[in-house]
Amino acid sequence: MLLEKIISISGKPGLFKLVSQLRNGFIIEDVTNKKKVSIGNSSQVSLLDNIAMFTFDKEVPLFEVFENVAKNNDYKETISHKSSDAELKEFMLSSLPNYDTERVYASDIKKLAQWYNILHKAGYITPESFVKAEPETLEGEPAEEVSIEKETKKAAPKAEKPAAPKVKATSAAKSAPKSTHTKKG
Questions:
Q1: At the topology level of CATH, where does 6-47 sit?
Q2: Rounded distance between C-alpha atoms, residue 11 and residue 74, angstroms
Q3: Over the chain (185 residues), what is each successive 10-residue block's mean pLDDT?
Q4: Which residues pair with 20 in a beta bridge?
């Protein structure tokens, strides 16, 4: 799922996709109705790609939480963000079992459910959207992994005569502080 261009704007309901940047703001597109509008630089914008949820041992990126929700719901819509706090907590426990109950508030869980359902309605939640792409080379072919063993064998020094250490005279001069004052004598 590509979340790097999906944003939430403080004071505006819904989610938006960044379309382009203007001199004094951005052009955005509502993910559900595809209407484009411009916003100023002063708008408080949050990139979904930069949001994470607290667990007791780490922060989990929102992408991973959405993937858990999708798998738990067979890639269908989840509970409404207007559900009771008890239902929302149960939903959160099934989506992220070790979430930090003191730092993740009911309002955060409501927003998670609401955003998930918006993205689902807009077509962003599908089994294919969570497939991680393999690293590619410039030619478009999968990158080849190099094992540490191969690198160590190639880097082993030859057992011939040891070379004398090379010392640059300029390296010491570069690191020594230069004085701008001269003594007259």
A1: SH3 type barrels. (2.30.30)
A2: 31
A3: 82 93 93 94 91 95 94 93 95 95 95 96 87 56 42 42 44 43 51
A4: 27
